[in-house]
Amino acid sequence: MKAICVLLVSAYSVMAAGPVPAPDAKPPAQAARGQAAFFDESTATHCGGCHALAQKGTAVGPDLSRLAHLNARAIVMAIRATRTQYVQWVKLKDGKEFPGMPGAKAEGTTVQYYDLSATPPALKKVEKADIASAGDNATWKHPPESAGYTAQQLADVIAYIKWASYGDTKSVSTADTE
Known about the structure:
7 strands; SH3 type barrels; 178 residues; elongated; five-stranded antiparallel β-sheet
């Protein structure tokens, strides 16, 4: 019975969310501006450099469609978060350090990290024996905060995340991003 309830709640959540837009679907104006900012390669810290949405971008960072159902203020808080559970500070025995996002689980004597100090993030395969420590990140900051996105740009990007994730066509107010 418990499994049936969980299945029904999950199905309702998917139905209430709306369908993911078709790959050739045209987003509403605000989401289109957000899509342009999300994938703007002229900006070194564009979202699509680390995140993928609608089968575009680089799937290094967390899946942003998981945030899409949150309200705009909660998404902004996640974007502006100084610390994240996903990023570790990696110190190597040779003295080099970098903010790293763990990659695929490696077999044997190596581990994989995406070096977030590189643009775009570079996959590094590191011998476990060469790692002095890997732990809490106290210095790496999520790029959009340092990129200086305006309230309007944040609202546009959030509108795109919501549209690309579940077809939401509602506008996002700049007041909800400040």
